[in-house]
Amino acid sequence: MKTETPAKTPSPATDEEENLEDAGLEIPAAADDAGLTEAEEGGKNEKADQSDTKSRSAASGKGQGADESGTKDSEKEEGRTAETSTEEAEPPLRKRVIGYLTGQFTVKVIVVVVLIASVVTAGLQWHRADKADTREDERRQAGASAGRFGQALLSYDHTKLQAARDKVLSLASDDFAKTYDQAFTGGLEGIITKLKADASATVRTVYVGDIDGGNTRAVVVMDSEVHSTAGTRSVLGSYLDMKLTRDHGTWKVTEVTSVGAANESMTDPNGKQETTPIQPDPTLSPGG
User: Fold this and answer.
1) Residue 155 included in any domain
2) Residue 198 sits in which domain range?
3) Does residue 29 sit within a domain?
4) Domain assignment present for 142
């Protein structure tokens, strides 16, 4: 069976071209124009695509910029938060540091004040103790002088009266030395020489009163014994009341009075003994 092929229908463009050729006219390059148009459209589309790409890039850039800006703002905000936190944290820390330093300074001040008070107290105590020691030293010196005077006054050798006299005078003040010298040369020396008396004395104790400026008072308790041609005279617990003054650092006796004795006895050459008890009542504190 024979298959018929349908006849091709001439396109309007082909007929037109044929007519133009018959008329001797130049056929316009429709295909080229079409191609150009398509190229232009392609270029436009490409430009549009590029524009879209640029827009998207710009948008993306803006987005990144926004993100970066947001990140920077966030970092700044975190920095400010951290600074704020640091600033908020600094006052307590500063307060603690200041409190520690102030406390340490206060402790140091207290320690210094305590040390100063201790030094002042120790100084006052030392000063008082030193003054008390000085007073006691003065009382001991006064008592020692009083004891030496009493022993010198009641001790003598009838063959060495000048030595005994000089010893008494060395322990007496100028005024009392004159008084004693008059009494010694005026009668005492002759009696001792006549009786060939020899005397010895020992000091039991010395009572010294308070030091008043450069003056004080002392009572010397003594035992003494005198051997002579008249017999032996013993005096136990005799009391000599003395007044003393400090003269150029040395205590001198200015006055002496015999108060009495606890016991006094006399034994004559035949051995007969007479006893006379006496009870004085001294009121001074012991010293020397």
Assistant:
1) yes
2) 132-287
3) no
4) yes
Q: What does the DSSP assignment read for 95-115?
A: HHHHHHHHHHHHHHHHHHHHH
Candidate from 12-16, 178-182, 247-251, 266-270 with smallest mean pLDDT? 12-16
Please determine, for residue 58, whether its predicted confidence score (pLDDT) is greater than 50: no
Is the entire prediction scored with pTM above 0.85? no
Residue corresponding to tokens 């003594």: 222
The count of structural domains within the chain is 1
From CA 273, how far away is CA 142, in angstroms rounded? 37
CA atoms within 13 Å, Cβ hemisphere of 162: 0
- pLDDT band per the 50, 70, 90 thresholds, residue 274: confident
In this prediction, residue 270 carries a pLDDT of 86
pLDDT value at 47 more than 80: no
Q: What is the CATH number of the domain that holds 212?
A: 3.10.450.230
Residue with tokens 């063959």: 159
Whether 17 maps to a domain, the answer reads no
